Amino acid sequence: MLVRDAMSTVVLTIGPAHTLHQAARLMSARRVGAAVVLDPDTCGLGILTERDILNAVGAGLDPDHEFAAAHTTTDVVFAAPGWTLEAAAAAMVRGGFRHLVVLEDRNPVGMVSVRDIVRCWQPAHTALAG
Predict the structure, then answer these.
(1) Taken in order 91, 67, 53, 59, is the CA torsion positive or negative?
(2) Rounded to an integer, what distance in angstroms lies between the CA atom of residue 23 and that of residue 37?
(3) Cα–chain-centroid distance for residue 122?
(4) Fewest beta carbons less than 10 Å away: which of 44, 63, 89, 108?
(5) What is the spatial distance between Cα 51 and Cα 45, in angstroms, rounded to a whole number?
(6) What residues contact 74, with CB distance under 8 A and at least 6 apart?
(7) What tens digit of pLDDT does each residue of 49-83 get?
(8) For the stretch 63-98, what's the b/e string if a residue is b when 16 or more beta carbons lie within 10 angstroms of its beta carbon?
(9) What are the residue ranges in the chain where pLDDT is below 70?
(10) Nearest 10 degrees: CA dihedral of 93, 98, 103, 106?
(11) How far is the C-alpha of 100 from the C-alpha of 87, rounded, in Å?
(12) Cβ-count burial of 35 within 10 angstroms (0-12 exposed, 13-18 middle, 19+ buried)?
């Protein structure tokens, strides 16, 4: 099975000037655990995850006054739609993260999470056990 079969095509894109509160509200509304942060000034792509927001709030920072830019991971590992789920899972384990931005022609076309991969693998493992 490939990343394209498991990925969510709902890609939440925010800017670096979004507050963490705004990002959390958008992530919650779309039921996603991460947002792609596009910085038009640097032409760069980053990722802001629910864990980034949780860490900031847990450190006592005010989510209404903290901006996504300060909490965005910019050394992102990207996946391609044609990667196998095994390759995506291996990249996540190596990097210690739970989300991969899926790029095609340098554009974000999806997001794949550990949960997405487990959902795809679960029916196969259930069939083997039965």
Answers:
(1) positive
(2) 10
(3) 21
(4) 44
(5) 18
(6) 44, 46
(7) 999 999 999 999 999 999 999 999 988 999 999 99
(8) beebbbbebbbeebeebebebebeebbebbeeeebb
(9) 43, 123-130
(10) -90
(11) 11
(12) buried
Q: How far is residue 19 from each of residues 22, 26, 31, 54, 127, measured CA to CA in Å?
A: 5, 11, 18, 13, 45
Beta carbons of 34 and 113 less than 8 angstroms apart: yes
Token couple for 12: 């939440």
**Which residues touch 94 (CB under 8 Å, ≥6 apart)?**
none
CB contact at 8 A, 88 and 82: no
